[in-house]
Amino acid sequence: MKLLALDTSSEGCSAALLVDGEISERFELAPRGHTRLLMPMVRELLAEKNLAPAELDALAFACGPGSFTGVRIATGVVQGLAWGLDIPVVPVSSLEAVALGAIDALEIPEDTGIAVAFDARMGEVYWGCFAARSGLPVALAPEQVCPPEAVTLPAGAERWFGAGPGWQYRSAMPEEVSGRVDTIDETLVLRAAWVGRLAVIAYEQGKAVPAEQAQPVYIRDEVAWKKLPGR
């Protein structure tokens, strides 16, 4: 299988190419460089494997939650490519992808919980809770956006790890949450390689969609800046 995965949902910009189980990736921390960097990354990856875009079987992208502008960039690029190539798209949760990265980076044991937190601005965090099962994240509760004071840990795991930059607000989280988390890595930034690994599994499960159904997931509809009076 040949799958191209993209992510621009956070300060990182990355593209990954999965060809028959082998992964190649480009990654750069560039909060304002996504539109400039993404397509050159794609071209480099395809050239390395001597692949034409028409040889791809599917596309994948981190559909959110995350930066509103960043998520829209990846969505637009994926939709355009999918339309032109007439191939399906696999949307992947940004929170779930970071949970996968945490399983690898923190060597999280089987059946241990991973609480992923992103900074959602406006005094809130994006929050997703997963369990490590056979080396993959399994959702234990619906993803949500809420103030740090309102986060909870669902049933399904006794031991917990934390991942993602939203854990900078740990001091504001309830003691029953922060006190149960053994290890926290605030530095994990989403990478397209994690998106691609999850996308291959989802593709095999029949979860790919046509281009028009490859939509961003914001979780909330509010804009990420304060409205001017009268707007």
Compose a concise summary of this entry:
The protein is an alpha/beta fold. The chain is built from five helices and eleven strands, in the order E-E-E-H-E-H-E-H-E-E-E-E-E-H-E-H. Strand 7 and strand 8 form a beta hairpin.
Would you write up a description of this structure?
By secondary structure, the chain is of the alpha/beta class. The protein folds into 2 domains: 2-93 and 190-213, ATPase, nucleotide binding domain (Nucleotidyltransferase, domain 5, 2-Layer Sandwich), CATH 3.30.420; 95-185, ATPase, nucleotide binding domain (Nucleotidyltransferase, domain 5). The chain has 5 helices and 11 strands. Strands 6, 7, 8, 9, 10 and 11 form a 6-stranded mixed beta sheet that branches.
Helices and strands, with pairings:
Layout lengths: L1 E6 L4 E8 L2 E8 L4 H15 L9 E7 L3 H18 L3 E5 H12 L7 E9 L2 E10 L2 E4 L4 E3 L13 E4 L11 H4 L2 E5 L6 H13 L27
Parallel strand pairs: 1-4, 4-5, 6-10, 10-11
Antiparallel strand pairs: 1-2, 2-3, 6-7, 7-8, 7-9
**What is the H/E string?**
EEEHEHEHEEEEEHEH
The CATH level-2 architecture of the largest domain is identified as 2-Layer Sandwich
Range of strand content: 25-35%
The total strand number stands at 11
Give the mean pLDDT: 94
Query: What name goes with the CATH superfamily of the largest domain?
Result: ATPase, nucleotide binding domain
How many helices in DSSP terms? 5
Structural class: alpha/beta
- Terminal residue distance: 49 Å
Output the CATH class name of the largest domain.
Alpha Beta
Report the helical percentage: 25-40%
Gyration radius over CA: 17 Å
Number of structural domains: 2
CATH fold label of the largest domain:
Nucleotidyltransferase, domain 5
What's the shape?
A: globular
